[in-house]
């Protein structure tokens, strides 16, 4: 970890999308470690869930890891999102954690509010680490997948994109990736503009995006990286409604623990962990 | 078509995997045209199906296209596969069409028999065109996917490979690709040896593999091409049972009608049809 944190002039915090259904201890463990360990102050935002017991449930999970300085921010309406108490908590937090639920609620309740702006600014300038699971993962980036259809082949009108939290515009995240069969909608999202990299994050799996834009994997599943930077042709502009979309020139990497990818250079490599195991 | 047939010294016939559920008229129409048009002699092999009405059902389909010189070869047991009458029919055929069903039956009934050898030799040396739908598509190549699990992420022990008809060893075909969510098992199959290209053929869609190894698409769906020739790392050799497999450096193209791919150079491009439509 230390090598990443000291590897560049960037003071951006880590961005940690998790694909839902957290079971592997190392997912939250590594996030806590990034935030400074057991004494880390972590703000839990259960807005996506809409259930009052979701926040406390995650507090228990963090407590089981020895982390007792968590606070749940019950942001249910837009008017909650300029509350001085909550802003003050986020100002002093080492990490923010978004729970799962419906990412549409995150966009409609938090979008454009002082608390969303504060999280975005502190992640960019002040090293605030931000993790989210399931809907919370979908919300992290500039371009968010609000919804779409299942299946591996991209079709026109298969995906609904909208603005997310905006921590990075380099990646588009899809979650529950294997379990809900979402390659097609991720490809559809990328087919419009090959600038972004697609990250399909499986359940119980996290993509740990470092300040230098390298990505390491934790958990039991895979992260499917779709890199469209070499795309020479996409038919999304001429495809009829619900017709399959041609995309020529994609690169793909299936990452599991022990492998990594760099968003800046678009290179995948094996890290020491997996090399040793072989 | 003519440009392909006259484009090289090869006398190999076309190889035409179709992903199942044929609805678009142009799929069988183009196959008939390749075989010489309405007077083409086409041998229908319904072995995968095991149902006695499958062969006649396809005879009707070909008849509706004006093609009356079809014969059904009821190859149900290995001993049927050195029958002089059937061998003679295949010797004089312009095309062979394998129906769907269970590809395991094709392997176990035809594998290594004189009729399989004759089809393979005549396709390679004598311009016999060979198409197959569903299980019939799976069977065409050297390496056949006998079965496997669903889902987009590759896992170890997810796919069962075996020997197929052997028309080419350059491609591994999976069929009903979108509809049965088979990216993961195709990636698993490729992860063992990045020599082969994976062709995931959707239902009602055909990959028309020309004698020069260029591939054009017909039908309403897509063909997902996975090109592992740039793979730098695969963890299939060290992954534990049912664990996700890391694969770094894949290329992917989603092909629809109007786009094409070359198995020899591994290049995808747009053909005239789609360029005009834009």
Question: Can you give a write-up of this model?
Answer:
2 copies of one chain form a homodimer. With 278 residues, chain A is an alpha/beta fold. Chain A has a single domain, classed as Class I glutamine amidotransferase (GATase) domain (Rossmann fold), CATH 3.40.50. Helices cover 26% and strands 27% of the residues of chain A. Chain A has helices at residues 2-5, 25-34, 54-64, 84-92, 103-110, 114-125, 135-138, 183-191, 272-277, and strands at residues 15-18, 42-45, 70-72, 95-98, 129-133, 143-148, 159-163, 171-175, 197-201, 205-209, 214-219, 223-227, 233-234, 247-255, 259-262, 268-270. In chain A, the strands form 3 sheets. Chain A has a 9-stranded mixed beta sheet. In chain A, α4 runs parallel beside α6. The two termini of chain A are 22 Å apart. Mean pLDDT of chain A is 91; it is low at 1-9. Chains A and B meet through α8, β14 and β16 of A and α8, β14 and β16 of B. β14 of chain A pairs antiparallel with β14 (247-255) of chain B, so a sheet runs across the interface.
């Amino acid at each position: 970890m230390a090598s990443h944190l000291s590897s560049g002039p960037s003071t951006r915090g880590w961005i940690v999308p998790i694909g839902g259904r957290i079971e592997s201890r190392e997912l939250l463990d590594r996030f806590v470690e990034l935030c400074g360990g057991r004494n880390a102050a972590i703000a839990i935002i259960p807005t996506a869930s809409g259930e009052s017991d979701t926040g406390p449930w995650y507090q228990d999970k963090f407590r089981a890891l020895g982390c007792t300085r968590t606070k749940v921010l019950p942001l249910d309406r837009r008017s909650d999102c300029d509350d001085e108490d909550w802003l003050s908590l986020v100002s002093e937090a080492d990490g923010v954690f978004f729970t799962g639920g419906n990412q549409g609620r995150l966009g409609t309740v938090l979008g454009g509010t002082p608390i969303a702006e504060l999280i975005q600014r502190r992640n960019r300038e002040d090293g605030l680490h931000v993790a989210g699971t399931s809907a919370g993962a979908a919300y992290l980036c500039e371009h968010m997948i609000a919804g779409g259809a299942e299946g591996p082949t991209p079709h026109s009108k298969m995906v609904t994109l909208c603005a997310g939290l905006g921590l990075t515009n380099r990646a588009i995240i899809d979650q529950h990736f294997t379990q809900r069969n979402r390659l097609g909608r991720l490809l559809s999202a990328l087919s419009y503009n090959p600038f972004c990299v697609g990250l399909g994050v499986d359940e119980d799996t996290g993509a740990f995006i470092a300040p230098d834009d390298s990505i390491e994997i934790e958990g039991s599943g895979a992260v499917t990286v779709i890199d469209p930077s070499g795309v020479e042709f996409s038919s999304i502009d001429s495809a009829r409604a619900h017709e399959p979309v041609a995309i020529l020139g994609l690169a793909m990497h299936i990452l599991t623990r022990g492998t990594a990818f760099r968003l800046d250079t678009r290179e995948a490599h094996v890290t020491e962990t997996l090399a040793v195991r072989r």
